[in-house]
Amino acid sequence: MLKTGKEHLEGLRDGRTVYIGSERVDDVTTHPAFKNAAQTVAALYDVKHDPEFKDLLSYEEDGERYSMWFLQAKTRDDLRKRTKAHKKIADLSCGLFGRSPDHVSSFVTGMSTNPSVFDTDTYKFGDNLMAYYDHMRKNDIFATYAVLPPQAARNPEFYEKQNIPVPTLRVVREDDDGVVMSGMKMLATSAVFCDEIWVGNLLPLAPNQVKEAITCAIPCNVEGLSLWMRQPIALNANNEFDAPLTWKYDETDVLVICDEVKVPWEKVFVMDDAILAREIYIKTPAHCYGNHQSNVRFWAKMQLILGLCSKVTQSTGADQIPAVREILGRMSAQESALAGMVHGQIEAAEEWPEGYLTCNRRMMYAALDWCTENPSAIVDELRTLCGGGVFQMPGSVNIMHDEKMRETFEQYFQTPQMGALDRMKLMRLAWDFVGSEFAGRQQQYEKFYAGASFIVRNHSHRETDWGFFDGIVDDFMAGYDVPEPAKLAAE
Question: 16 Cβ partners below 8 Å, 6+ apart?
């Protein structure tokens, strides 16, 4: 079933516990901090019902229609369909909504192609995983994940010395009908707009951290769960013109607090296995499915950046300067390089697991590394091209409602290439990308989106066939040997 935006918004009024500081938010669809971003999410649901995009964003199976990100890829054409759907969803937010509905859904879909990974000698959770995949696609679930321990909890000795419990989320009790967990997890981006939260562990756990190794799914309104918001950035936006990105794309970042949260056994996927808790992401295509989506999303963002670079320079005529054209050409090459990495993952797809096709993992991780390393430098190029223009605009577009100020503004702020109001609109958009608090959050988010850079590169190291590359060197060296003394003397 494909939900509508209205149906999704109605589902968010489910009694979930959301805090901004000490303020309890009763309805995220109407609160000033969330209402515009909630409408952005609703639009992502509604576009699937548009006849123009229905077949792009959904597929039919056994008479039912599902969102395209639940498609298990068996051919390159299936992979292309998934990529095109991710791109359309990313384009609708210019790549600024990192945790859109197609992200975590892709992780679960990747897992569903190899559910045997979830079956161990102790627990047989493969059927649980497949039932959850089926639940997600049938109900068009928007899920986020909380898969990292709070930073301080990574040093348990600190808490042991003070004789207080480590705050990271863990199982505190097992009952006949499920498990009970308490503690906190980060960082459930978009949780206030989601139906459910996937709780797990992307970072390695110590072998003795068995009770922290819980992987499960919980509704956002389950008893005992509270969502603690970072400071909302959207509250800084008085109107869409002056802060067009902040206004509707603050997806929020959330710390998940569990106080005796009950999880039924059928929603548990890993239990008491510190190694498997992380391996489910890399022994299935989950990490590849989910991070291919993130590659595509950043591609959409890169296209916005390239467009801004072009328009900003056009607004002053700087695009005619050879040195500026050289910068634009380099930015264009970077956008095209990322596009090539995205498409290359499909053309070099792997037959893995058996019966399925998965995007090339090495190429996906190469693109992920590129997207982690380059955003700051790319945005800095845009900042350089903006120059002081972003500071030369009036404090608010409300000057347009004062006749005298409007006349002065239109006379003095125009350029031969662009009218004053259009130029102000462009500079407001550029500033919201390079200099506002929203822009700062975006840069921090991209830098650590997939973890620190050494984590991303370790993924690349793991997926590299070093024997192949070593073999190139070995084969070359095998073609010659130590020459005879006579030959050495002759030379």
Answer: 28, 192, 220, 221, 225, 227
